[in-house]
Amino acid sequence: MEKNDFNKLEFEARDRDVFKIPDVSTKLSTLQNYFFPRLEILLRESLREVEEIYGINPYQTMTFCYTPQHRRDASSNKDFGFVSIGVTGKRNQQKLIFKKKGGGYASIHASYLTYEIDPEGSLTVVFTPFRGYPSSITLSR
């Protein structure tokens, strides 16, 4: 399959086996290497359609987001139970008025459009135009 050949893009039932890898670090690395290239083809085709239909450049105000996004040298890695790739609004340099309990400013994306695959093999399109804020964030005074 060519790198960006959308018409030959396939997901198969055996893809679910990657979610069964017992070691978390190995599992997360394998999820990234196995699914990200194909999901990126799907996402880029979607963004091409957005650009063509609406006459806008989605890359100007959007940035890519990936889950899992772990580091090999991290002391622990979190398994979210799914793999996804998508776009979200770019963060600007201005600090938000929301602070975390620890005192640092929150860094929240306002919206998401992602493609998500779960361990059962479901491919879901997740569109959240106005994302809710976690309850652990409090308004600064």
* Intertermini distance: 55 Å
The stretches of 5 or more residues where confidence is low (pLDDT under 50) are 133-141
The radius of gyration is 17 Å
Biggest sheet, strands in spatial order?
Answer: 1-2-4-5
Helix content: 10-25%
Number of strands: 6
What is the N-to-C succession of helices and strands?
Answer: HHEEEEEE
Largest sheet, in brief, is: 4 strands, antiparallel
Structural class: alpha+beta
Average pLDDT reading: 80
Shape: flat
Oligomerization category of the chains in this entry: single chain
Total number of helical segments? 2
Sheet-strand content, in percent, reads 15-25%
Q: How many structural units, i.e. domains?
A: 1
